[in-house]
Specification:
alpha/beta; Rossmann fold; Helicase, Ruva Protein, domain 3; Arc Repressor Mutant, subunit A; 3 domains; 8 strands; 53% helix; ATPase; AAA_16; metal-binding; metal ion binding; heme
Length: 391
């Protein structure tokens, strides 16, 4: 079939042609937007899940929903080696710029921009001394410039929220890879959100991260479990996975046989990224409509090869030899989270001697601590990939 008309889109954070199986999450966020706009108390949101389940896609969809309601929006991607001060300032600068044309008091906008500039200039990061934010107003004095991130972030959030409140809308700050926010910064973020929730300001934080993100937040502030609405994003059920394939194809006049859908669900296991990856390759291989189980059987090896190189292999290459040994031991124990003591037993080592490899893998985002004493792969089917590799 014509590859130019291929509707499937496997990509990092790239919205699929059919956002199937996420109606519940979309309704939840719609309620959050409506309640905040009406001045009702509402928690910020956190999406968690393995890589490839569509967290970033949902985060971007939420952002579009907020923009359609004329909210101010900004988005950052957290990095473990970077303070959130400068990225948050840039994101909120974008949000204020979206609101400014509708505000009737330019002096209010200028005040918030001056606070933003003061906040950003206290960035302790490398090269900060020679950096100036692109905000064409003088920096405020005595507001969000103490150098204490808890105080400064709280004051910035309160001032930014007040501008949105003037317009009867809100501000949404979206944070991807939230588990990578540094511990002092995540503590300050929780404290600022806590203060804002008590004052009722219309500003929410919407985060997305790996399954251990709730543990990261809880370790930072004990009240974080009440501060955020946690939503776990998982694989698609059979109906949703079929819909993700059928609907885009139907718009191109192409159909799947029931056998083809059976084979594709077995191969992709309901994970959205895999659904798109297999759908794209099968489309290119199929000679005509309807796409059959035989087409899937012919195309599947190439899809698996592409995943082995781009999705699995690129991550595997980031690991050191010691880290690879650790992951191969995990893979021998299965695909679900496994006890760290069992990994040590497979390797014939003491658990304490493996801590550096384990901690490094967690920092690299290749594994996560499911709960105390358990570790799991952040990438679905990674164990199966490792078991297929030559030792």
């Amino acid at each position: 079939m014509d590859p130019v008309r291929n509707p499937y889109a496997p990509g990092a954070g790239q919205r699929p042609p059919e956002l199937a199986g996420r109606d519940r999450e979309l309704r939840q966020f719609e309620i959050v937007l409506e309640r905040v706009a009406r001045g009702r108390p509402e928690r910020s949101m956190v999406l968690t899940g393995l890589r490839g389940v569509g967290k970033t896609v949902l985060l971007n969809t939420f952002k579009s929903m907020a923009m359609q309601r004329l909210w101010g929006t900004g988005k950052i991607e957290a990095r473990p080696d970077q303070s959130i001060r400068r990225p948050v300032a840039a994101a909120l600068h974008m949000a204020i710029r979206e609101l400014a044309p509708r505000h009737r008091a330019p002096e209010r906008i200028e005040h918030v921009l001056s606070v933003l500039k003061a906040f950003a200039l206290r960035d302790p990061g490398k090269g900060a001394a020679n950096w100036t934010p692109a905000i064409d107003v003088p920096a405020a004095r005595g507001r969000a410039d103490s150098g204490d991130l808890v105080i400064d972030l709280t004051e910035l959030f309160v001032d930014a929220a007040s501008v949105a409140a003037d317009l009867g809308v809100g501000i949404a700050l979206f944070i991807d890879e939230m588990q990578d926010v540094r511990p002092p910064d995540i503590s300050a973020l929780c404290a600022a959100c806590h203060e804002l929730s008590q004052s009722g300001g219309p500003l929410i934080v919407v985060g997305a991260g790996l399954p251990h993100l709730p543990t990261v937040l809880s370790a930072s502030k004990s009240y974080s479990e009440r501060l955020f609405r946690y939503t776990r994003i998982d694989r698609l059920d059979r109906e949703a996975a079929d819909q993700a394939l059928i609907a885009p194809a139907a718009r191109e006049g192409v159909e799947f046989t029931p056998g083809a859908l059976d084979a594709l669900y077995e191969a992709a296991d309901g994970y959205p990224y895999f659904v798109q990856a297999y759908g794209k390759v099968v489309w290119d291989y199929a000679p005509k409509s309807p796409i059959t189980a035989d087409d899937v059987a012919v195309a599947a090896p190439e899809a698996e090869e592409e995943l082995a190189v781009g999705f699995f292999g690129s991550r595997y290459e980031r690991a050191t030899p010691a880290e690879r040994d650790y992951m191969r031991a995990m893979a021998r124990l299965g695909d679900d989270p496994v006890p760290t003591a069992a990994v040590a037993e497979v390797l014939g080592r003491k658990p304490s001697s493996l801590s550096p490899a384990r901690d490094s893998l967690i920092k690299k985002g290749l594994i996560y601590s499911a709960e105390r004493g358990l570790v799991g792969f952040t990438v679905p089917h990674f164990g199966r990939f490792l078991r297929a590799q030559p030792v």
